[in-house]
């Protein structure tokens, strides 16, 4: 081989330099494009860990859990077709752990606790619930302690033992027609749900507990006029909800209920409200008002974020504390205030005529 053939010509060297520069420029261009795309998508760096300065600042500025709804059980003896908190587990925290969580909430600024389910009187025949009610009023001295129940498991002896510690008892009743309640699933066997409602209303009067009624408006009761019955019962508040779909609860493949057939339009809901405009205690809640305006704790004491139309749980307040967990609650405090979530909720301040 000749020596001259082993030495690159000036032309070859120039081509090599141009080729190298082309590769370098292509590489730089590729990196720049990646950075730009990443910046637009927010993916230039991984999500900072929970203990980063940014997240610590978010935790420090966390909202106050003024009013909390604790669904300590998912089990229920009714089968309401539109139920949006279904029996996906049978778990209930041990009493002392539940009390520890409630103390954490009080220390973070909670003023009102509402116990719900499932059916809260089902677990230990209401004794577990009664002990929590007593603890919240006596030990934590919360201004307001309330319960939402279907009423079917409540006995007068519960009022005799725990009534003085309870501010508000809300009973769910969607119709004053027994056949309609049977269609909805708001029933157990052939027992009269309406008769029981009147009985509990009288017990609330006798044992000095503010009486409230909750109704879910749906395709089966949309044409009903409840004015006379509500006026006769005289609740301090009548909460009227528009039937709401929640993926994984009453809608979707993994749901235990199929509530699509119960759903009504905004217009039909407004017509129901207009028909009952003379009822002064009526408090309406459309889907828009309801979806993100509640601080909901599940049976593990995890906040549930409903912003995506499903319930995405935070970590438990028992593990990470209230301030960190509440950052993942999806709670809309402005809507909470707009829907009248803050009201006179202590029976000591209601000045009711017992």
Automatic annotation (TrEMBL):
Keyword terms: 4Fe-4S, Antiviral defense, Endoplasmic reticulum, Immunity, Innate immunity, Iron, Iron-sulfur, Membrane, Metal-binding, S-adenosyl-L-methionine
Pfam families, per database record: Radical_SAM
UniProt-recorded Gene Ontology molecular function terms: 4 iron, 4 sulfur cluster binding; catalytic activity; metal ion binding
InterPro entries xrefs: Aldolase_TIM, Elp3/MiaA/NifB-like_rSAM, RSAD2, RSAD2/Viperin_antiviral, rSAM, rSAM_sf
Keyword flag Methyltransferase: no
Cofactor: [4Fe-4S] cluster
Metal-binding is among the record's keywords: yes
Residue ranges of every copy of the Radical SAM core domain listed in the record: 62-282
Membrane topology field: Peripheral membrane protein
GO CC list: endoplasmic reticulum membrane; lipid droplet; mitochondrion
Gene3D superfamilies linked: Aldolase class I (3.20.20.70)
Main localization of the protein described in the UniProt heading: endoplasmic reticulum
Cellular localisation: Endoplasmic reticulum membrane
GO biological process entries: defense response to virus; innate immune response; positive regulation of immune response
Alphabetized PROSITE patterns for the sequence: RADICAL_SAM
SUPFAM superfamilies per UniProt: Radical SAM enzymes (SSF102114)
Domain of life: Eukaryota
NCBIfam families, per database record: viperin, viperin_w_prok
Family, similarity comment: Belongs to the radical SAM superfamily. RSAD2 family.
Name recorded for this polypeptide: S-adenosylmethionine-dependent nucleotide dehydratase RSAD2
């Amino acid at each position: 081989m000749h020596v001259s053939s082993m030495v690159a010509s000036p032309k070859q060297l120039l081509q090599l330099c141009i080729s190298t520069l082309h590769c370098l420029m292509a590489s730089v261009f590729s990196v720049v494009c990646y950075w730009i795309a990443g910046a637009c998508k927010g993916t230039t760096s991984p999500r900072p860990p929970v203990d980063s300065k940014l997240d610590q600042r978010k935790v420090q500025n966390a909202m106050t859990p003024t009013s909390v709804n604790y669904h300590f059980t998912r089990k229920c003896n009714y089968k309401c077709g539109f139920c949006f908190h279904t029996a996906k587990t049978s778990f209930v925290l041990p009493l002392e752990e539940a009390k520890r969580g409630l103390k954490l909430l009080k220390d973070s600024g909670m003023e009102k606790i509402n116990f719900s389910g499932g059916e809260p009187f089902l677990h230990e025949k209401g004794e577990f619930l009664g002990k929590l009610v007593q603890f919240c009023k006596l030990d934590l001295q919360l201004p307001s302690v309330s319960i939402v129940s279907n009423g079917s498991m409540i006995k007068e002896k519960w009022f005799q033992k725990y009534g003085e510690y309870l501010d508000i008892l809300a009973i769910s009743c969607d119709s004053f027609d027994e056949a309609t309640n049977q269609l909805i699933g708001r029933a157990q066997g052939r027992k009269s749900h309406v008769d029981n409602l009147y009985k509990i209303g009288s017990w609330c009067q006798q044992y000095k507990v503010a009486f409230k009624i909750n109704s879910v408006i749906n395709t089966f009761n949309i044409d009903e006029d409840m004015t006379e019955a509500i006026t006769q019962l005289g609740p301090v508040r009548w909460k009227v909800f528009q039937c709401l779909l929640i993926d994984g609860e009453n809608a979707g493949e993994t749901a235990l209920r199929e509530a699509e057939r119960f759903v009504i339009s905004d217009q039909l809901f407004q017509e129901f409200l207009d028909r009952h405009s003379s009822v002064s205690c009526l408090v309406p809640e459309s889907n828009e008002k309801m979806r993100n305006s509640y601080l909901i704790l599940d049976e593990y004491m995890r906040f549930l974020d409903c912003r995506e139309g499903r319930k995405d749980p935070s970590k438990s307040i028992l593990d990470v504390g209230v301030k960190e967990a509440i950052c993942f609650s999806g709670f809309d405090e402005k809507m909470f205030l707009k829907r009248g979530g803050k009201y006179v909720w202590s029976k000591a301040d209601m000045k009711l005529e017992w």
